[in-house]
């Protein structure tokens, strides 16, 4: 059985055992970003709803389902109410799941939600999220003389996502190659391309000497991006009405 069929069977098992309906399920990790190693796992994320009577319960229940985590599959999902509350705050995760190039399951109900997701995008919120991700990974993993080389991608991708937001004023794409093509300076592309080939052709890229040229590039962008973000105005808040309607439409 191929991996697509295995994942489809796992999602059907989630629906049956948890008594839920999965509206949308996608790949969210390095495979969706376009730089998976040969042994990368599958990061499956989904949005689900429950039967209407479930919402009338007095006892509190979890709004996530954590289904499987092993060397091959990482499967978990968010309850739609949680997802839409995060969308209200312009949390970038939902924009990424909505634009993933690898879709394992989707529905007409999700299509109605998907059509409106980008209208909730906030450039400033997205910039702060991606800049924080790039900064924490850079400070945490790329400071020594010897570093885990794959960690460069977990810094470069959010950094380039910031540049995309500044230039394009829209949610950044999932694919790393699309970000590189659109916003990475031409003189940096050979450095990144060489590292990317190594990542995609090696089961575990392992450690190597710090790449000073990349570190300098990252440092410069962390400083300049922070200054630009701080000067941006806050986006006006939108009411809950449309999100409530989308939620009720999916539940019904």
Question: Overview of this structure, please?
Answer:
The mean pLDDT is 94. The chain is built from eleven helices and seven strands. The two termini are 35 Å apart. The protein has helices at residues 3-18, 30-33, 80-88, 92-99, 108-117, 123-141, 151-168, 176-183, 189-201, 212-230, 241-251, and strands at 21-27, 42-49, 64-69, 73-79, 103-106, 146-148, 207-209. Helix content is 54%, strand content 15%. Helix 6 (123-141) runs antiparallel to helix 7 (151-168), helix 6 runs antiparallel to helix 10 and helix 7 crosses helix 8 (176-183). The radius of gyration is 20 Å and the shape is globular. With 252 residues, it is α+β, with helices and mostly antiparallel strands. The strands form two sheets. The protein has a five-stranded mixed beta sheet with strand order 3-4-2-1-5, sandwiched between helices. The chain has a two-stranded antiparallel sheet with strand order 6-7.
